[in-house]
Design a protein that fits this description.
Blueprint: H1 4-7, E1 13-15, H2 26-53, H3 60-89, E2 93-95, H4 96-129, H5 134-137, H6 140-156, H7 158-166, H8 183-187, H9 195-228, H10 233-241, H11 244-266, H12 272-297, H13 299-313
Antiparallel strand pairs: 1-2
Helix pairs in contact: 2-3, 2-12, 2-13, 3-4, 3-12, 4-6, 4-7, 4-9, 4-11, 7-9, 11-12, 12-13
């Protein structure tokens, strides 16, 4: 561990945390984590493969779904090395620069996923409220522009945020509460004033995930208003049915993220185990559940996946 004189500037390393109180069982705990990572990477990879190879899925809704799978894969690949390294080899050390790099990818893919979910909500809004103009509004060129906007929006604000983090001095414990680097967690270890960092970080969260969640809610208010005006109960059910997968994806993304943010802001006396569990749920549940939800609830995806499996068997 770096000496105190070194640590008042930038620590040579931070120390990540596995599952507090269960260190002797890390080898066994790694088994469900391996399974979750395998499901997330395989499932999202399969979604991407079927969308690319099946021409019937070359539609706006599925292009946005492929973006969602890309962000989920990015989140998994950003943390799989550090988390499994802790469980298998007790490799808890991570350099300051590597920690900053990991934060960039974790927060970047998180904000990108929020933007993709907003784009998917807009897709459902157009499909239900203005179906005759759906093909003319969501053209391939506009979807490509949306993809670029998602990447730029998700990463641009992170650069000054992480540069502000690098100016901080660290003179407290270098032990983080999670198995990966998370901005609020690292910021708490600083012994200098972090008001600017905290305010800027909060503004980024509000301008990204906060605005996105409000616009998603607004889109569904308009969708519900439009669907209730449909006379046929069967048509209403069909219209709502097309939104079930997206509503589920929104819920499993925002609920863990809000929970983790609340724990970091107001849970100073919360046991470390709670921090760790919520952090892992926030990181792993959306990438694991999204491909399952869309494979089960979306008939076209389900048929395409079954077609690939059956062709391999034959």
């Amino acid at each position: 561990m770096p000496s105190f004189n070194q640590s008042i500037f930038h620590p040579a390393v931070f120390f990540l945390t596995g599952i507090p109180g269960f260190e002797t069982y890390h080898a066994w705990i790694s088994i469900p984590f391996c399974c979750l990572y395998a499901v997330a990477i395989t499932g999202n990879g399969m979604i991407l493969f079927v969308i690319i190879t099946e021409s019937s899925l070359h539609e706006p809704m599925y292009y946005f779904l492929s973006m969602l799978s890309c962000t989920d894969l990015g989140l998994c690949l950003s943390t799989v090395v550090t988390i499994l390294g802790i469980f298998w080899f007790n490799a808890r050390e991570i350099s300051f620069d590597a920690c900053v790099g990991q934060m960039f990818f974790i927060h970047g893919f998180t904000f990108m996923e929020s933007s993709v979910l907003l784009a998917m909500a807009f897709d459902r809004f157009i499909a239900i409220c203005n179906p005759l103009r759906y093909a003319t509004i969501l053209t391939n060129s506009r979807i490509i522009k949306v993809g670029f906007a998602v990447v730029i929006r998700g990463t641009t604000a992170l650069v000054p945020l992480l540069l502000l983090l690098k100016r901080l001095s660290f003179c407290r414990s270098h032990v983080l509460h999670h198995s990966y680097c998370f901005h609020p967690d690292v910021m708490k270890l600083s012994c200098t004033d972090t008001k600017i960092n905290s305010a800027f970080g909060l503004s980024i969260v509000i301008s990204n995930a906060g605005v996105d969640s409000v616009l998603i809610l607004l889109s569904y208010v308009l969708i519900i208003h439009s669907v209730l005006s449909i006379a046929s109960p069967e048509e209403r059910k069909k219209a709502f049915g097309t939104c079930v997968s997206h509503i589920s994806a929104v819920a499993i993304f925002y609920i863990p993220m809000i929970s983790l943010s609340l724990v970091h802001r107001f849970g100073k006396h919360t046991p470390p185990l709670v921090h760790t569990l919520i952090a892992n749920v926030y990181l792993l549940i959306p990438p694991v559940m999204n491909p399952i939800i869309y494979s089960v609830k979306t008939k076209q995806i389900r048929k395409a996946v079954l077609k690939i499996f059956l062709s391999k068997l034959i």
